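Colleagues,

Please find the record for the two-part complex below.
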Amino acid sequence: MTTQMTYGIEFVGISKSYGDVKAVRSIDLQIAPGETVALLGPNGAGKSTAIDMMLGLAVPDAGTVRVFGDEPRAAAKAGRIGGMLQLGGLIPFLTVRELVSSVAALYPNPLDVDDVITMTAIGDFAGRHTNKLSGGQIQRARFAMALVANTDLLILDEPTVAMDVEGRREFWTTMRGVAASGKTVVFATHYLDEADEYADRIVLMSQGKIVADGASTEIRGLAAGQVVRATLAGVQEAELLALAGVNSVELRGDAIVLSCTDSDATVRDLFASYPTVKNLSVAAAGLEEAFLQLTGNREREAV
Amino acid sequence: MTTTYLKYELVRTLRNRMGFVFSLAFPVVTFLVIALSQQEAGFIRRSGGIPPATYYMVGLLGFGGIGAVLSGGGRIAVDRALGWNRQLLLTPLKPWVYLTSKVVNGYAVAGMTLIVMYAAGIAAGARAPFERWVEMTALVLIGLIPYAAMGIWLGHVTTADAIGPIMGGTMTLFGLLGGAWFPLGGWMRVLGEYLPLYWITSAGRVAIGGDGWPMKGWLVVGCWSSVLAVLAARAYRVDTKRR
């Protein structure tokens, strides 16, 4: 028997519902130590629920979650998880520096508070009371709190929400350094470009399921599809879906719209199968449009 | 780790002046108004021998102390409203350290009330041998235990918006029925003896050479403490249960 690899995070058959809402549906996910993974998906895709289960803040209805081979709550108690939550305020009557120091004191192996203040570029408001911060400053203070813990695992739920462009850029510059230091980083986002640029790997979620999972370049390839438009009478959706490289089909009267990953193959197959096809055009799908196509398409399968 | 956390919790409490001015200033002002306007001879008849300066010093210390320890635990409601308790669940902070910090904060403010009230009481003529002061103080601090537990319970079962009025109402009700405003007689005294504040107030008896609490006093304070501690523990578990 071989020794099993201990994953940074492991989900096995995880499902979670809130009332009638199936937030997460039977997810399997393994994240290796040292990976930087983006959970990408639209609002309501189940990202925050998945993150809450990684952090031990929510218990799955079915399946098991392991963080470094441990139960998430136990990993948290051992000081192995640094988390940046999406919601919630900071406790009042403390300065940002005091707040970061108080969090640092809770962890077994914290970073130097001044170093973290420099790293996260919050020096200009580190002496300010937490109730006098803007939304973006609150997010950056929250990031400093997560970072000062100096944990092997950092989990960030939509970290750049409410940050301005400048704040966002500084945030990701710091994150690159953190990820390069060998930590396991998981962040949720609904910005495709953030996931694409800063993660080694993208886990694409929609409707509580993982619809795609791969290296950023693969996911970008998936998303960077093309749209083939043509006129073709009397054809069924299922027939068109069977064509080479077609992801999804839209019929508008005699007009057909095919979203595809390999338009060359699709066009060849289309002409071979339907010699009467005309008015054909091929266009590159925008990233966002393709992303919606991809998540939207799987949505129909799930129903 | 524990001391640093406690330190910042204390800093947070002390900077929130509006949070404790009520449990500090209100008892003193009330003391100056009530205690100094009493006819000493008539009062002593009603209070079982305790002069007004001593009686109100202890009674209003109990009243302010209740406010102090209630708001210690009550701050849990604020943490919950902020989502700060979720943030703390991600950290290695042990639950008992968190809850202890709230109790310590409550007692720290109660300690300030104590200093101010003793100063006012002595200025108004309250006198007792040193060891009597110590025994009296011990009884007052023990008598606040059930209210500290009540604060933790309320912090978990109420909201940040409701905690203020609930605390004000609780203080006033216990103050009235526990004899902080006037010495109890008749049915009020029969009822009052079942409340912890009554026994805090009656700790003033120690100052004039009387005995400490009888068995009934220890039982009342002990029962209230136990019941409220169980309620607080249960509320804590329900509130922090992962869903």
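Chain B touches chain A through 22 residues (CB under 8 Å).

Comments are welcome before we finalize the supplementary table.
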